[in-house]
Prior knowledge:
This protein is an alpha+beta fold. Helix content is 56%, strand content 15%. The chain has helices at 2-12, 23-50, 60-83, 87-108, 119-155, 175-230, 249-255, 259-262, 267-271, 276-288, 334-380, 385-413, 424-436, 462-479, 528-531, 549-559, and strands at residues 234-239, 244-247, 295-300, 306-317, 323-332, 420-423, 445-450, 457-460, 486-495, 514-521, 563-569, 573-581.
Amino acid sequence: MKFENFFIRQLAQSNSPDSYLNSETILRIKWLMIVRLITVTGIVGIGVVFLRYPESWVYLKPFSIIVVLTYILTSLYLIAFKVGISVVPILYVQIIFDILLVSATIHVTEGIESQFSLLYFVVILNGSIFLSLRGGLIIATVTTVVYSTLVALEFTNLIPPAHPVGLPGQMGVSKEYLLLKVYLHLCFFYILAFVSGFLAEREKQKDRKLENAQEELSRIRLDTDEILRNMSGGVISIDRFGRIVTFNKAGEGILGYKEKNIQGKSCQDIFQDDIPNFSQFLLTSMSDGREVTHYEMDLERTKNIILPLRISTSILIGEKNFRRGLIAVFEDLTDERNLQDRIRRSEKLAAIGELSASIAHEIRNPLASISGSVQFLMTELELADENERLMKVIVKESERLGRITGDFLTFARIKPGSMRVLSLQQVVQDIIGLVKNHPKMRLNIQIESHFPKNPIYVKMDDGQITQTVLNIALNALDAMQEVPQGKLKFELVAEKPDKQTPTFFAKEPTDLGSAKLSISDNGCGISEKNKRFLFKPFFTTKKSGTGLGLAIVNRIIDNHDGWINVDTEEGVGTTFSIILPLI
């Protein structure tokens, strides 16, 4: 076996340019070499020992020469492969030398009466297998010429006897018997060459057809896999038993599963704990034979996370309308839903803004009259302690109501300001200076900033951006009032555009990408319930808040064609990320 593997490795490493040298041919050549060695060292030796000649030791010397010669020739064939000689000439040389070796074996045994003439058929069979019909007929012809020559030379005593029995002519063999035997060998030589060559040709044709079919199938599978791999939407297919057959890369990104981990497994077992309604939908659609188009569903994942999907399904039908399985194409609707919410919120904010402006104008004028009148009365009248206290309450509450109406007007009048191309790093550094000197800043709060070395330029109204970032930072300080060691972090990065990911920008961003400013704290965090209402006007969790701060922030960022995102966990902290298009 080691010898056999050695030949395989040597042939596989050959530098032969022949396309003929494929894996099947290497295997057959290996088989030919091994059989040749086994035949010479085994079968011939057995024949010497166990044939009817008791004095078989007489043959040891010539047979030893034949065995040694066979090993030498096999080594030469191997060297020929190594140096890159063409395969077909090597095969012809091998087979012709095999014919000569068989002839030598016949000569040293009984000549024309030798039973080893049957080895010619093995050689012709090899020629037909490797060299097809034409090559087999050529080998049969060479064999006929060599065998006939050997018989003629022995019969006419032109070759000295190499076996103790003597020459056929000395044994009384007639010329007619000799011709008949040669003729029968000749007939069988050509019959074997023709039949085996014809079968070898048919086998090679079938092999070529099978190889072409396999290549075509492989190409189709590669094309299909390439299509599935590059589809922007997720694709999953299951068989009639509910086992996952296909799951593409986009599906991995949407659902968070790897194809190698789930392929071939039951979709119910895989999705049961995380998204059970997804597996139930697939199995029900397949069992009912139901096909849907653009069906929207919400997958309820762990930690109360909702994953909205749009899904279309098709039933895979086999022969006789047999259901083979189901294929589903799905896409993540998170970005689309966010955009829809943003549009609705913008429309609502616009309506609220107009209403707020109207109400603020109607309230502000009489409120100013009330406040002014009360302050005048306080200076003109001598009031008792209780009355003076009540007057101060009226003034205080009037001022608070004035601030609220002022916020209303600010919210209603937010418009794109004076846009200039500025360094966002410089603006944020100025804001950090304001935060450090703000009354809400405490000694146990640490401020960190992480900015890139190269400046990031954004087209913006620095006053509005300052108002936005300062509002978020002050909210962070409020959230860290109960934290023993607070940390407020400002981080700015430039992100390259990702064409695979839907954009949040109201307008098309530049090819330069976007600037992302993250403001993080380790405060109390925001509950999932309150997170949904963060940017809604008049929603607040503070005792004295108006609920317009983040609504104003949202409108300012919207006017800058940007987006704001919130990542929060109750009891851990909050990160506000402001994304603006780069210039």
